[in-house]
């Protein structure tokens, strides 16, 4: 499997993984269940790894699409710039999640506060991931760019 296919395949993991991680982390915090909190942090770490892989394979994907007719160089560039910022949040979230797992396992006094920080950073990271994913979708889906999601006009452009 080449880097472009990996990029397209893996990009869904951070979107859905972070969303799931937020839900599980909220549940763990509300119910104060240590194991649920640790599982949520592992979900977040898996999502971070997926995000870093998506970022690392993005350059190859860019080279693959840059010579395809109808692909906007500006759209690709906007997606790439957003991904660069998002990648920074991934690294920060990864470090915070690892620290939070350590604090939970060791029963540190600051573990609850750290979990709240992880939750806040995850929500912010998710917003960046969702925006980056949306920009990536515009590269090959012009209906997203135009805002036209009416199925009949997409499938039958001559239909009024």
Short note summarizing the structure:
The chain is mainly alpha-helical. It contains seven helices and no strands.
Tell me what the structure shows.
- The chain is mostly helical and 160 residues long.
- The chain has a single domain (3-155), classed as Four Helix Bundle (Hemerythrin (Met), subunit A) (Up-down Bundle).
- 84% of the residues lie in helices and 0% in strands.
- The protein has seven helices and no strands.
- The protein has helices at residues 3-10, 12-31, 34-65, 73-106, 111-140, 142-146, 151-155.
- Helix 2 (12-31) packs antiparallel against helix 3 (34-65) and helix 4 runs antiparallel to helix 5 (111-140).
- It is elongated, with a radius of gyration of 19 Å.
- The model has no long low-confidence stretch (mean pLDDT 89).
- Any idea what the radius of gyration is? 19 Å
SSE string, helix = H, strand = E?
Answer: HHHHHHH
Q: Number of helical runs?
A: 7
What number of structural domains do the residues give? 1
Shape: elongated
State the total count of DSSP E strands: 0
Q: What is the top-level CATH class?
A: Mainly Alpha
Mean of residue pLDDT?
89
CATH topology: Four Helix Bundle (Hemerythrin (Met), subunit A)
Supply the CATH architecture. Answer: Up-down Bundle
Largest sheet: none
Give the strand content: under 5%
Low-confidence stretches: none
Tell me the span between the first and last alpha carbons.
Answer: 41 Å
What is the percent of helical residues? over 70%
Judged by helices, strands and strand pairing, the structural class is mainly alpha
């Amino acid at each position: 499997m080449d880097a472009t296919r990996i990029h397209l395949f893996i990009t869904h993991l951070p979107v859905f993984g972070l969303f799931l991680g937020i839900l599980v982390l909220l549940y763990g915090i509300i119910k104060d269940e240590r194991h649920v909190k640790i599982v949520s942090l592992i979900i977040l770490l898996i999502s971070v790894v997926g995000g870093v892989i998506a970022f690392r394979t993005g350059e190859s994907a860019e080279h693959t699409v840059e010579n395809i007719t109808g692909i906007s160089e500006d759209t690709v560039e906007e997606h790439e710039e957003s991904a660069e910022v998002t990648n920074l949040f991934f690294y920060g979230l990864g470090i915070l999640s690892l620290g939070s797992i350590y604090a939970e396992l060791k029963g540190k006094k600051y573990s609850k506060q750290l979990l709240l920080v992880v939750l806040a950073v995850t929500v912010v990271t998710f917003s960046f991931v969702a925006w980056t994913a949306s920009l990536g979708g515009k590269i090959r889906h012009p209906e997203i760019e135009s805002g036209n999601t009416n199925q009949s006009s997409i499938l039958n452009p001559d239909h009024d």
